[in-house]
## 1
Amino acid sequence: MAAARDVVMPGIARPRWTPLEIVFWLAPIAAYVAFPDRRLLLSQIFIYGLFALSLDLVLGYAGILSLGHAAFFGAGAYTAALLAQHGWTEPLSGLVASGAVSAAFGLVVSLLVVPGSELGRLMVTLGVGLLMFEVANHASSITGGVDGLTDLPIGALLGRIPFGLDGRAACAYGFAILLVVFLLARRLVQSPFGLALRGIRENVRRMPAIGVDVNQRLRIVFAVAAGIAGLAGAALTQTTQLCGIDSLGFQRSAELLIMLVLGGAGRLYGALIGATVFIVAQDSLAGLSPDYWQFWLGAALVALVLIARGGLLGALDALRRRVTRGKR
Amino acid sequence: MRTLIGVLFDGVAYGSLLFLISLGLSVTMGLMSFVNLAHGAFAMMGGFLCVTLMRRLGISFGLTLPLVFVVIGAAGALIELGLYRRLYRASALDQVLFTIGLTFMTGAAATWIWGPSQQPIALPPSLHHQITLLGVDFGVYRLFLVGFVVVLAALLGLGVARTRFGAQLRAAVDNPQAAAGVGINVSLLFSITFALGTGLSGLGGALAIDVLGLDPTFALKYLVYFLLVVVVGGPGSLKGSLAAALLLGVADVAGKYYVPQLGSFVIYAAMIILLVVFPHGLYGRRA
């Protein structure tokens, strides 16, 4: 048994923590101390990083192209908002409940998404996203319609730290959720389950031959990712005390794709780096009108596809390969 | 009964427009398996071109239509040669990202140039009144639309069935490798078809101003409908696209007329059900 466990399979991610990873996780703490007036922004980075991580599991590891991932983000966001509105103001249990609702919703949607072709999956996820937007838009007596739900009563974190404008609670909350989920996701993609996902992405036809139930694995990862997206949505609702209809919009799904692809899909860290770069860029360009922002967003996408496939981390890898080859 | 006929007629007129705009997308997806989410942007630019020609140069509506067709078709050909051609072998993700990017850029540029509001259009008076047949009012413009698309569909159907070009096109949609193997220049064939398809979608965008409206969000707002026509009809199928477009047009208009509180809910739900029940489209050949 022990011998079998020690066998190193090529291509498996290193299970040990590298110094670079530890530095990576210390960086947000440094940012928290160094930029005390930008803590709300930092909490946004954690939350969108979490959301991008969720898409990375679906797209980067399982290879399912989802154009409606905001449906699950929104499902979590609205669940948390409705819970708070109806008196369940304790944040942690609300967060878990929202994640569970979103995961259950994801499992139902996965039954429709997984069996289809690539184009079919793209269309069904797009359709589910638009459907959810229409539901939230028209059921305005429950969801607040276009205005969303505002001034939600969210209880203090652990009964002590209230979510205030200084962003301290939001930061700690977002960071804790991100770290826990990341550790679980890291474990997941290195497990046999994660390897099976990568096998499915690389060659769907061969996987049944080695005894993998392809559709079952895809359904599970889709539901898990939907749950994570729901956690992100709920965390956004709780830290901002409001829930807008844009959390369900197509733009949100498209921006999420951009974050992930910008950082580099299929490597977990790419999602976090992409989200960081995206949120910081969005914040520093917020002075421009939204149309300019949309234009440059589009231009960035076009440039990414034409020039930098693999995202920032992919480009970094290519650079590193070139440097090491130069040394020899 | 009267309202039923009215709703059916409006649905057919709407479906005709969808068919006109979606045809080019169907060919792109059927022939090159290229996921072109920027297709709605071509239609939108057709609409803006039509409005600008009428307003700035005082050209009549009828005369702008051929101009729009030619200009948008030529623009499509240039974009195909310069950009899309690089991405035929790329993954669906790359294609989706690239074409969403183009759509965002077009939408933002259109807002910058024409402003975010709905564009008004002054149709010629001859198209702008109602006639009453058997006690039901029909808008002349919509009759014109339906007639136009019927004639066009018949011509295209004949072209595909009877001409040498049509035979080559059918062969290439069925099996591009084999078609290239018997000496058909598939990439040239595709460039020509792509230009024709974008020209038609530009034309559709111009014709759609009075029915669907025109503002910078047009490309994203109606993208789902265009995609839906293609996916439900089966990519690359003329007959399938026509059937799907009419079906969707009627379903959407009827849904919004009879259950307005649901809005677009009906069409999105119908889309998901159709996709799950007919994963290869109504006329899909690949089983």
Note: The two ends of chain A are 40 Å apart (CA to CA).
## 2
Amino acid sequence: MRRKITVFIIIALCYLLQTTLFSVLSFASISPNLLIIVVSSFGFMRGKKEGLFIGFFCGLLLDIWSGSIIGFYSLLYMYIGYINGMFRKLFYPEDIKLPLLLIAGSDITCNLFIYFIMFLFRNRYNFNYYFLQLMLPELVYTMVVTIFLYFIILKINQRLEVIEKRSASKFV
Amino acid sequence: MKRKPKFVLPTKYILLIMTGVCVVALLLSFTLNIKGGPLNTIAGYVFVPMQKGINTVGSWVVEKSDNLKQLNDVMKENEELKAQVDSLTSELNTIKLEQYELENLRELLELDQKYPSYEKVAANVIGKDGGNWFTNFTIDKGADDGIEVDMNVIAGSGLVGIVTDVGPNYAKVAAIINDTMKVSGMVTSTSDNLIVSGSLQNMNEHMVIEFSNLNDKDDEVAIGDPVVTSYVSDQYQQGILIGYISSLEMDANNLTKSGTITPAVDFEHIQEVLVILNKKQTAEE
């Protein structure tokens, strides 16, 4: 329960920052994707199941607020969380290379899907432009934010795991 | 006492079930045009107050720092403007004379009733779209203030967009610069109709949106001509300024023209908007 509330607060905070603060702090009208950092990090820190659900709820939030149809972002983020969960066995908290790589991969995959489904099907063929001017800047910006946000999420998760272990050993 | 082993559903199946849920939601919102329903209302009550709070703090800080920065600029500008006022006053006098003449002529034509003043409600922008692909935003007035879907949104004197979704205390607005948006417009100088369509690429590169299907046989439309919403539009009130033509060229078919329009609204820095409470009357209603 404690974990659920904490995760909800993290998601809500990241979403709010993304829509308010970071859209003001945007460089060349590009803002970072904080939710993908949350989904991806919880995916490889906690496994497929939690990645799946956190992805689903982040996606649902985006669907309700900015999408025109319910379910598109939910589906996309859910699969991103699930796939990140597969890398749990390779994950060591001290090593930042894998998280960076996975979050970058997730962000690019997410944007590629949005491009293919929402833009390519409406005859917007100029892939180079969208890749260089939109996806790449977002990726770089997201990576910069990741370096800070990832460690915050990591610390919160470690604290939660310690608390959970303690209360679990009490009951056995 | 041994604990009963709890039954745990493998994650594969959870993924499958959730995929099904999403697909059903997708199909439902596609076919029935449902947009969340109760979910929207709950989300509205949870997130709108928080977004409002962050925005008040944020805009206070920005305002203070901007004030200091702008003081110098403003003083310099003041000098220039004073000079401009003098020249404009003389210009105004001549225009007033013409205005008087125009009013007389209007009265003769009984055109007074053509542009009724619309009832409007002011709202603050409290959140932007989460991603970088679309320009939607959330405003802090909703159904409680009489806002409905399809109402037009303006800022200053220009058209911003249209309300796409309404909750009790918030509304979602899709901007006209959105890649998916189309508005039918009209060049005021010649009353020729054209179609304005948003474009992500043009907006990011040159701060313009596209138009097409302008029928201008006599080459009367020129760069700089204002474009307003057209009377043929079924969603937009007539005569709201969209922007000014910034480039113009003949299509390959040698019949119609297309080009770009500079929007009258600065979409990067929208803070306050006005929602027009009158909806366009259409034949179906």
Note: Residues 127-171 of chain A form the longest helix (45 residues).
## 3
Amino acid sequence: MASIPSEYPVTRQRRGLGDRLGDHGLKAITLAAALAAVVLLGAIVWKVLELAWPAISHYGLSFLTSATWDPVREEFGALSFIYGTVVTSFLALLIATPLAVAIALWLSELAPGGARGVIGSLVEMLAAIPSVVLGLWGILVLGPYLSHHLEPWLHEHLGFLPIFGPPSSTGTGMFTAALILTIMIVPIIASICRELFLQVPNELEEGALALGATRWEMVRGVILPATRTGIAAAIILGLGRALGEAIAVTQVIGGGTHITRNIFGPSDTIASKIASSYQGAASSLEAASLLYLAAILLVIGLVTNFVAQVIVRRFDPLRGAR
Amino acid sequence: MSAATPEFSLRPTGRLRRRRIVNRIMETVGTLAALLAVAVLGLVVVSVAVRAAPALSLDFFTQPPNIFGGPGGGISSAIIGSALLVAMATAMALPVGVLIAIYLTEFASPGVAGPIQLVLDVLNGLPTIVTGIFVYGLLVIGHGQSGYAGAFALAIVMLPLVARAAQETLLLVPTALREAGLALGVSRWRTVLGVILPTTFGGILTGAVLAMARAAGETAPLLFASSIFNPAVSTDVTHALPNIPVLIFTYSEQPDQSLHEQAWGAALVLMAFVLVASLTAKALLARSRRKLGQ
């Protein structure tokens, strides 16, 4: 019966000091970096609220329900900007969601092998266009086209609806802003949806087709129900982007503080009001009110992203419990 | 023996026909939607290129803007300023982002990694104008606008992008490499820094390039940090640096035709950089994935 020879004593050799320090050191440094990200988000929230505090304590929540923005009389309220934000973002989502889902379905289910990669990359490329370039294009190309062609046509044929009022003369307004936002959020929603659709098990799709369903019936009966909440998250992420976009919207929305039903009319969103006032405010109360707007935007941004990410996490193997 | 002629036709009728038509319509809608997106991309790229053409000349790249705002002059100072801002932002965001990724993939337990990941994703989705306001409150009030404030704001935008890209590459590294290192008695930190990190070089580079492309086009974070500047060439980071996005933004708001022309020219430069960077990143990614055997 063999036994461990006693001349080879099993001793536990301690690891070198360098290795122990190295292991702990690397872990500590990387942990510090990770905590820095958490601290950064905390600092953003704290700093923006601190900056906005004079206006928050001055107006309280009535800031949200007042539509006056009058630097002369020093009365400030956010309602007209909230209105502009809601109208442009809602309109953009209305156009972008069906388009983006259709693109994602085409890319994940229909596209022939060669076209899939190319078209997919081109759609992603659309998201890479800087917003300031899109805004420049919006103000000098898209806007004039809309004001001379599409808006008069819509006004003429659908003018009985109050939202299609008289066209704008310069092409700047909520409608133009909504179209620019649509271009920005379609690739975002489409790329998330495409990933979702690709994760639907092939057996389910093939099962539906084998039972005689057409491709569209398979999409409606299998893919869309399986990814419904994920699509909702993608839409919320797109919404977050649309609500927070400042630059391109500032360029094309025209500016203004009155609430109009006509979607061709000029307006301002919360973000565009902040961006268009970058060269300074007339009074400290106006400055604080602008920062109050930034705080509103921060809260909206935190909520939309948090909700969407929590939902997305359930689908994404990388993000969920590993 | 005569073949029976079928009494039924193979042509779909009634319900089946309707189902097929609906299917065909929906397939067409999907194809058209994809083509529409590509068409919009083409339209934007072509109209920027066409309208930028008259502005492009050697002077456009080598001269600073005309001080009196008239015709002539170029955007050299904005190109230099933008390059400097993005380089500084990368120097801040890249190391921190990679360290975060190492922590998340190599050290963190799932219970800790989850919340940190969530913070990064929320940070990524935050409106960039809010980032601008934050940096304004932190670094600009009391000190004035500066290049480093602008670079810091861009770094905040880049950080989650870099961290995510690095993390995704680290996750692709085969577990066998980690185990091999540990089995040879190599300590954890040497395995991470000497074995794992070098294999992820390509992926991290891709992420960095993509983040730089994104940062180069960001205007909102710079509005409050580096927007009120002297048009002359400057590399003094303690003062606001001229940069391409803010230049396009301010020129586009002016009624002056010659400024519009300059804005188109600047937009073409910016877009060319962004598109080339994205394509390069894609090529790098394909290469690094091939090397990792994925």
Note: Residues 80-282 of chain A form a domain with the MetI-like fold fold (CATH 1.10.3720.10).
